[in-house]
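Researcher: Next sequence.
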Amino acid sequence: MTSSKLRWYSQPSLARGAVEARKIFSDSDFATLKSKVKSLIEAKVGKEIPNLCDYHCLVDDKTHQTLFGSKLSRVFSERDARDIVKLDSIQGFLEDLGDYKLTDVKLPTGRFEGRPEVYFRVVRPSKSSDVGQLHADVWFDKLLNIDYEGKRAFKTWTLLWGDSSNPGLQFFQFDEDLLGKYVVVVDSQGNKAFNSLINTRPAVNLNMNEGDSFLFDHLTLHQGISHRSVTRVSVEIDFCPKGYR
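Model: Next structure:
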């Protein structure tokens, strides 16, 4: 299925229940992506892991937190990220999108200009600390004073290893004005108020097969879900309009 057939998902489409995954990587490009991520993880761990679904059986908690506890530890180097950008699948995807490019790496402390935001996540079974907690990416844009002036920025989330019978992502329908009101909640009262509102919104879980991707814009409220018995490994790539960072 070509990338031009991949739907854009946002809060309104979630309200209609339109949640499904698509394939944007060819088989050969997906194999290249998996090989790249596997090599990066094995190089840091210092040993071969034949199947990354078994990662949690071979790497202890302290080692995992030290190696992969921060986003920066999981961001591709500029060279590795540009190798992924050169893949025919990504180039075709960008061609379909038109005036878009990969964003620069964004961290709470700032941005790495000119370094494409491509990073992986390793989520061990039933380890809530490994998943991305409930958020909308627009919160981090606002935190870093990034303003796309009404244009859409979005992310692709691709499952590399995991269990298709378990959901990997969860989405919530939420009003955009409330998303703006609760940007980057940090105080306990704010968290309590936000969570009480979330509990009134229906959740949509997304099951994916290895190789599936999901595209959603920065206004989408979402969180990761750990699998019950295997380690889940995914990769995320962020896109923004040309002329912005």
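Model: The radius of gyration is 17 Å. The first strand starts at residue 100 and ends at 102.
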